[in-house]
Amino acid sequence: MNTRNLSPLDRLLSDAQRALETVLGAPPALRDNPAGNTAEIVLEDAERRHAAGLMRINHVGEVCAQALYCGQAAVARDETTRAHLLEAAQEETDHLAWCADRLRELDDRPSLLNPLWYAGSYAIGALAGLRGDGWNLGFVVETERQVEAHIDEHLQSLPPADARSRAILRTMKADEARHAASAEQAGARILPMPVPTLMAAASKLMKTVAYRI
Question: Fewer C-beta within 10 Å: the chain N or C terminus?
Fold first, then answer.
């Protein structure tokens, strides 16, 4: 990873480019799609729509993760913390690409509200980061734990025949758990109540809307 010092303007331009790529473009994955050569089974229309709704939620989650990490990195006080956040963001880019691939396979589309999700998540990430690096990393831990939980729900809810979506989600879950553990080791602080509750409520709203729009 390139860790050279960037000026505030450089960082602003870099964040703007990442935002455009995330919301409007198709950032490539650096790792192979976990679905690999997993056979595609033709799903019934209702099953396909349900699987697409779940994968749209996961795609939105990755859009939000990109924005959160970039917002946090923008205000991180320690270069090691910033590097940690940007490294996690790169793996979230893989997840974003895999979810987008699966949506295309299911003949569906990402959320129409992705610009809104990105802007709101970037602002939340920056606000979290301003509290200091310990709280910054604590926010990472809580975010990843909640993402793990909703991926578990989706693994239970996916149509039994949808092995391709399931393969992607299992790899994503393992990555999220690793991100949380790494943040804990780096000095994350436990977020006080009611912050986790508010995060869960915002996540529930996002999932409800993104499933359809």
Answer: N
Write b or e for each residue in 20-44: b if 16 or more Cβ atoms lie within 10 A of its Cβ, otherwise e: eebbeeebebeeebbbeeeeeeebe
Helices (H), 130-162: 133-157
| H helix runs in the chain, sequence order | 8-23, 45-75, 79-105, 114-129, 133-157, 163-185, 195-210
Domains of the chain: which residue ranges? 42-210
| Token pair for 109 | 């589309």
Query: Tell me: domain 42-210, CATH 3.20.20.300, correct?
Result: no
> In sequence order, what are the residues at sequence separation of 6 or more whose Cβ sits closer than 8 angstroms to the Cβ of residue 103?
52, 55, 56, 59, 109, 110
CA distances from residue 109 to 47, 159, 211 in whole angstroms, order as listed: 16, 19, 11
Task: Please determine, for residue 3, whether its predicted confidence score (pLDDT) is greater than 60.
Answer: no
The string of pLDDT tens digits covering residues 123-171 is: 988 888 888 888 888 888 998 899 999 999 999 999 999 999 999 999 9
Identify whether the C-beta of residue 124 lies closer than 8 Å to the C-beta of residue 135.
no
Nearest to 61, CA basis, from 187, 163, 153, 182: 153
